[in-house]
Amino acid sequence: MAHEFAALRQFKLIQYAQKFAQAGYAVVLFDYRYWGGSTGKPRELISLKDQIEDWKTVIQYISSCKWVDQRRIVLWGTGLSGGYVLNLASELKNISSIMVQVPFVDGAETAKIYPIQQLPKALKLSSQDYMGAKVGLNPRTLPVVAQQQLSFFPTSDSYQGYLSIVNPDYYWSGEVAARALFQLIRYRPIQSVRDISIP
Fold first, then answer.
1. pLDDT digits (tens, 9 = 90+) for 18-30
2. Where does the record place the Serine aminopeptidase S33 domain (predicted)?
């Protein structure tokens, strides 16, 4: 199990894991590199490629554990991690089933609902951050959520949703290196759905 875009496992995901554990599942819950309890710098950086690699590393670890039934490995994801789970289910042969909750399925379609007056500014910031990273500059960040302001998810629903799960006992700046926006727009896990042969 891993959380949504820019969210930590302490953002109500532990409660999900506990419910699954009570139902008899052996649960492995993790933060992506650069986030929460995981290592890596700069902090709060999102690389879709790296996060999918994190999933594969955890799955490889689980596959080596004697206490795990290798015939019954299940992946669970929500939002962006739900998109990762769809990709992984289409690619890996040792997964028995998946559970996805409101998965991120199509960045190109999602971009169409981004406020048109803000999209050029957001893309410019994303481009500046990407190019700055190539020459060693500090990340240019973009808020994860904001009400009607420049952010990754500039809707009132997104704002309220994220604030409802944030755990104040854990550090979270609420910002991410803006280069992730280009990655999100190009990410289309819906294209892998037809290759999934498991429930």
1. 999 999 999 999 9
2. 15-127
CA-CA distance, 137 to 140, in Å (whole number)? Answer: 9
Tokens for 153, please give them.
Answer: 């998810």
Q: Are the beta carbons of 191 and 107 closer than 8 angstroms?
A: no
pLDDT in tens, 107-138: 999 999 999 999 999 999 999 999 999 999 99
Tokens of 100: 């996805």
- SS3 for 24-79 is CCCCCCCCCCCCCCCCCCCCCCCCHHHHHHHHHHHHHHHHCCCCCCHHHCEEEEEC
Please answer whether residues 94 and 197 qualify as being in contact, where contact means their C-beta atoms are separated by less than 8 angstroms: no
- Domain harbouring 164, CATH code: 3.40.50
Number of structural domains in the chain: 1
In a domain, 8, yes or no: no
- Rounded CA-CA distance 157/154 in Å is 9
